[in-house]
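Researcher: Good morning. I'm working through a list of sequences from a screen, and I'd like to move beyond sequence-only analysis. For each chain I'm collecting a predicted structure so we can compare shapes side by side. This is the next one on the list. No need for commentary yet; just the structure.
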Amino acid sequence: MAVVVEMHNTGDPRARAEIAAVIEHLLSDRLVEWRVPIIGSRENDNWELRIAGPNGFERSYTLIGGAGQHQPDAIRHLLPKLLPPRI
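Model: Good morning. Structure tokens for this chain:
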């Protein structure tokens, strides 16, 4: 189904495209609709990642830039830990 990734205040457009591609790839084989907004803070290097899925599923996680969590590989490893078992 559909995967919607929104990114705001997160810097480099090339990095945004790569992160969006990683998220879309990780969710593409799930048969329901997902929405993943990532909002960057204007005050520090934190990004708020939210995941919304079926049956009211919601998770949020703060990605800390200083800890390397803005990197596509870090998000690739983190996202499966935040998701429910396959639906």
